């Protein structure tokens, strides 16, 4: 199973572009319209329908969706926004872009990597404006509980659903519970186009404001003028260039048609990982079998006990060519350590030091998955499987 030492033989994620994807993008290129236009509008309608929500605004990244959500929720100087530390830094940066203060709440623990609603409630002050829970790895946070808390306390609920298109809680799609939902279509995501994102909302006023803000605050877009719908424009507030473009939107529309089937396959693979790795000493998998059907299964996290995480990762890479990745807690990153010296979030710190994710993609074969499992067993130094 060994290749050259350290050479990746089994990648963390792998994107399969089908002929229908290539054709969808080629058709846009042939149309001669490359910037935001009819394909972006079509994707917005399709993704809104997929989520079961009235409005989707496509943007240039998940970060842009978070930033515009914070602005639209009125987050500004002097406000506080409650966020997890166990997330990608974009969740927290969006708060800083608005001049507000991120307030970190800890996660539940190594069995549930999502923000703890009890910690969220404890972190609320009179300055709190919003809460941004992250559906980490595609597994729903206690969203009903947090939504109720936000409603009672008059806070905006901005769901970071970057990992969670198609995931559900109580049968309802994530990203539809609060003020807005934020999605990322970055390359490694379950629905991807390279760089892209979307904001979902049931509020037409929010949707309208975000449409303006994503395009410099202009009252008419380039496609409106091209179509003759408008001949001039005004700028009603200082916005951004956070537009998606039509080739990427067409790619997303094409891939969206396969999303549910791909997520179903991810779930089967995750259940198989859970079964095959369940008896390995020194290793555990967050969440439970019962959580898998509601998850988009974006990534498979593995927790290695006894401070051996880095050693196990090295063995996986050097001996088996299996790529893994780690997820630092945001409050432990240099730029945030400087802002919040001495902040302690024990569960986030424990998980950041003991977790990595292992390869998962919809077209992964069982044979490849078996190789990952064997490599993990070997690297953890345990070949005695209880089942
Ligand atoms: C949890 C989370 N939030 C936000 C983002 C930001 O998305 P993007 O990279 O599309 O800006 C990411 C992704 O990369 C993410 O993992």
Overview of this protein structure:
This protein has 387 residues and is of the alpha/beta class. Helices cover 40% and strands 14% of the residues. It contains 13 helices and 14 strands. It has helices at residues 19-31, 38-51, 62-72, 90-97, 117-123, 143-153, 204-214, 222-227, 246-277, 309-320, 334-339, 346-354, 366-380; strands spanning 55-59, 80-84, 101-105, 107-109, 112-115, 128-131, 156-160, 168-169, 172-173, 180-184, 197-201, 283-284, 300-304, 355-358. Strands 1-11-10-7-6-2-3 form a seven-stranded mixed beta sheet, sandwiched between helices. Strand 8 and strand 9 form a beta hairpin. Helix 2 runs parallel beside helix 9, helix 3 runs parallel beside helix 4 (90-97) and helix 3 (62-72) crosses helix 7 (204-214). The longest helix has 32 residues, at 246-277. The two termini are 24 Å apart. Pyridoxal-5'-phosphate (PLP) binds at residues 61-63, 87-88, 90-91, 134, 160, 162-163, 184, 186, 197. Pyridoxal-5'-phosphate binds at residues 61-63, 87-88, 90-91, 134, 160, 162-163, 184, 186, 197.
